[in-house]
Design goal:
By secondary structure, this protein is mainly alpha-helical. The protein has one domain. Helices cover 76% and strands 0% of the residues. Helix 2 packs antiparallel against helix 11 and helix 3 runs antiparallel to helix 10.
């Protein structure tokens, strides 16, 4: 028996989603290093991620490249639109309000996903998932406590759009069991790039990109984001939408550590406590569910 086959579908989903969150964790750090206006970042982020997603689909599917998109159907188009909305919400939310507000509101994505899944998919979540959502909300709040504030209602609204679109994206994926929606992230990238291009006055408002920023753009948008989000987008094939959202919160913790290590922006002690709560909750939940699965297997045998 191979190591891959010995893993349950849930364990595969956990590893896939957590791995994707770790891959995209330098996102905030690299955006700081790129240091471009939001319209420029959105345009290049959209174009380069679209190319990166398309390359991944081509490598995975080979001659079935076109069919991978066709299988997604109308639901796939909805997934692409929702993913692009979450991108706009995240970037514009950071422009109009404090970063702490954005992260705190985004931490509500698992709760929104749980509600949407209950209403539209009739999925019931175990008590341990609701407890984990509550603890992760607490931990994330502590992480961003120093940066949080009233902010702008417009920025908070954009952050709420990002959280809702992200949760709806994962929930919609669950509506087509067994269908991999990750190829449709190519379309999402193109939507982001097109809207950013129009918003910039059809390119008139774009600025020149410094050479070092080009390097960071390629690393982030052509490599890290396509790889990470392809794994995350496949998460709903194996896990409830709320669990996928929960695992994405690990990006907040690891991303904060990246900024600390590279830019020496030391988080407050309370933020370290919050990060420990988030990671500890996710690990404890994973171990608990592993034990439950092992007991169920032993009963079947």
């Amino acid at each position: 028996m191979t190591a891959h086959s010995s893993l349950s579908r849930r364990q595969q989903g956990l590893l896939m989603t957590a791995g994707g969150a770790l891959i995209i964790s330098p996102d905030a750090l690299l955006i700081k290093l790129i240091n471009l206006p939001d319209s420029d970042i959105l345009l290049w982020r959209g174009l380069l991620t679209a190319l990166g997603f398309a390359l991944i689909v081509a490598l995975r599917q080979g001659r079935g490249f076109v069919n991978a998109y066709y299988r997604c159907g109308g639901v796939g188009v909805g997934v692409a639109v929702l993913f692009s909305l979450s991108t706009f919400g995240f970037v514009l939310g950071n422009q109009y309000t404090k970063g702490g507000n954005v992260l705190m509101i985004l931490a509500g994505a698992p709760l929104i996903a749980a509600a949407l899944s209950r209403v539209f998919l009739h999925e019931r979540l175990p008590l341990r998932t609701w407890v984990a959502i509550g603890l992760c909300l607490l931990g994330t709040s502590l992480i961003v406590l120093d940066d949080a504030g009233a902010g702008s209602w417009k920025g908070n609204a954009f952050a709420l759009l990002a959280a809702t679109a992200l949760a709806a994206n994962f929930t919609l994926c669950r509506a087509r069991p067994g269908v991999d929606m990750s190829p449709m992230l190519t379309l999402a990238g193109l939507i982001v790039a097109l809207v950013a291009f129009v918003a910039s006055g059809f390119g008139a408002g774009l600025s020149a990109v410094p050479a070092m920023s080009v390097v960071w753009l390629v690393v982030l948008c052509l490599i890290l984001l396509p790889l990470g989000f392809t794994l995350i987008q496949r998460g709903p094939l194996y896990l409830p939408a709320a669990d996928v959202g929960l695992l994405m919160l690990s990006e907040v913790v690891v991303g904060t550590i990246w900024v600390w290590l590279i830019l020496n922006e030391r988080p407050a002690p309370v933020a370290l406590v919050g990060g420990a709560i988030v990671i500890g909750t996710l690990v404890a939940k994973g171990l608990m569910e592993r034990r439950i699965e092992m007991r169920q297997r032993s009963r079947v045998q």
